[in-house]
Please model this.
Amino acid sequence: MDTRRLTILFVLTLLSLTTVSNAQRGPRFSNWSAPVNIGPPINTEFDDNVPVLSKDEKTLFFTSTRMPGGYGGEDIWVSRRQNNKAPWGEPVNLGSRINTQYTERMRSLSDDGRIILFQSNRPTGSYGLTDIWAIVRKQPNDDFRWSLPVNLGPVINTEYAEVAAKYLFDERHPNGILFFSSTRPFGFGGPDIYESEVTESGFAPPVNVFELNTGSIETCFWVREDGLEIIFSSNRPNLDGDMSKLDLWVSTRWSVYETWSPPESLGPIVNTEGYLDVNPMLASADRTLYFSSTRPNPNGPAGNMDIYISTRTRWR
Model:
């Protein structure tokens, strides 16, 4: 295993020592509110997609095809604000150390802000169609001192497409577990959602999270930090790969030792018929849902893909 991949595992070990787990049933919430387009300067006439906030909610990483300032295809951009009530600042490209002429699609940020996982189809150092890559930084507030990208390796990445990815730390997996989606063979159809436990020697063989997957598409997702809720995109029950039927679905569980509940659609308040609703992310103590959608934007100017937010109330 090369030095940079060992660095990733070292950071994961530090995270596991500082993460507080919750193996009990989590909080209950109200239904989600009608989504609101977050507007400029985040959304543009280009595709603006895959929002991921820092824990203090002062930094927003996202993917965009905006030009000028991009390197071609999808790049990762960052925007900052003074507090969670302040407007977002003008986004800045993470630069050529991270972004290339190929696709760099933001996926997740570790709880301490030190590891970004992203999806890329860059050919150099890859194993297949799209792989999961990681970048690391020492200071969680320094947005422009990331390491060179590190491929997560052949246990996770295959000759097929690996898509979304997020680390989770809980009582059952003290060293961490990686959730990711993949089109690898022997799934239900797909892509499907998988999990791989992080061990002292690397990633354990991935396991299909069978209760979440079907013969349809199960792809980009977000796992709540307590491990008791997952929101993901699926076009179920459609079986012909129609991406326009991707909606947001949710599943919960009583504890991290139990299986997931049968997934349920977030419903017509959040999802829109005939448009993509994808790339969910939870913030504000799980009361705010960020996601991406191709739905028409009544306030314009509309892009092919914009970022939206929806909120819910915590009951207990």
User: Anything to note?
Assistant: The chain is about 5% helix and 35% strand. Confidence is low (pLDDT under 50) at residues 16-24.
